[in-house]
Amino acid sequence: MSSFQIIVGSMLGGTEYVAEACEETLLALNHQTTLHLQPKFEQIISKNQTWLICTSTHGAGDFPDNIQNFVEDLKKCTVDLSPVKFMIIGVGDSSYDTFCKAAKEIENILLSKGCKQSLATKTLDMSEEIDPEDLAQLWLKTNKDLL
After folding, report:
1. Cα gap 32→23, rounded to integer Å
2. Vertex 116: Cα angle to 66 and 104 (nearest 5)
3. Which string of DSSP letters, residue by residue, matches 128-146?
4. pTM given for the model
5. DSSP code of residue 84
6. What is the pLDDT of residues 121-147, one digit of tens each?
7. Please, are residues 40 and 69 in contact by the beta-carbon 8 Å criterion?
8. Contact 141, 25 (CB under 8 A)
9. Could you give all domains of the chain from N- to C-terminal order, each with its CATH number?
10. How far apart, in whole angstroms, are the C-alpha atoms of residue 84 and residue 24?
11. What is the residue-averaged pLDDT of the chain?
12. Residue 38 above 90 pLDDT?
């Protein structure tokens, strides 16, 4: 059993649904979870945790408003984050050249801080006929041995 900090970046709420579906799946797999809809860096546990970051991209490749302060604090962080494992789900629309840019950027930030990526970033393309919650849950279930 692992412990997950689920960190959400969402403008219109769709990514929140993805994060809540992930929480449901992780709980069913007997993991512990804490969901952060308004993430504050100083309140997110980093020791013996896996961070699952679910974020959309807004505007011209920007982070959603609710996660911007978290990202800025993460960039400035001087604490050793090497024990943190992370996974990312990016939600976007591939008809934009900034498709899942926020997810890719936070991946680079976390790697630059020494965090360890557990799974390759999962991108969900909302321009396709998909159920993003189902795809996120399937991704977790398929990779349950790596969690």
Report:
1. 9
2. 45
3. SS--HHHHHHHHHHHTGGG
4. 0.96
5. -
6. 999 999 999 999 999 999 999 999 988
7. yes
8. yes
9. 3-142 (3.40.50.360)
10. 22
11. 95
12. yes
